[in-house]
Amino acid sequence: MAKRRFNFVLSRKPPAAARTMTEVRQEIRSRLNEVGKAHVKSRREVVGNWSSRTKPRFSYKVGVNVGRITLQVNVQEKALPFWRFVDRGTRAHVIKAKNPSGRLRFRMGGFAKTQPNPARFGAGRRPNGPWRAPEQVNHPGTRARHFSRKINKDLKKDELSAIRNGGRAGLRKANR
Questions:
Q1: Looking at the 3D structure of the chain, how many domains does it have?
Q2: What is the pTM of this model?
Q3: In this predicted structure, what is the pLDDT of residue 165?
């Protein structure tokens, strides 16, 4: 039996690996920037009617390195505790008056302005019940609303498609 020979001819030289990776990273980064903007927009909708004292500001950062692609959403330091209280909830705790001989003073009633599902804001209601003035209160804690979890779940498909499509577009761009 005769040996067959195959000739393989490249019509052009493939691009350098470093150039290819640079193009892929740039494309993934640019597409993840759009998803990052959507994350920030969704979180801003949640806190749209919070007071300026407690309303957090959000930002995002995209990182595309060898072996790791990250999209990190950050909360402004000053308002971070308020966001955590609402997003993650609080344990049961005792609230005492600051002044030992003082009393707490608040109205009963009302409900939260932000609703957990979907992770968006609502109208809410001001407390209109009777005034209370105890020395201390056993607060039952706050139920976690998991806004971040729900927003992340909503945008997970967009993140994955941005990475996949960015990688494909980067390869096409590098091979031109």
A1: 1
A2: 0.76
A3: 96
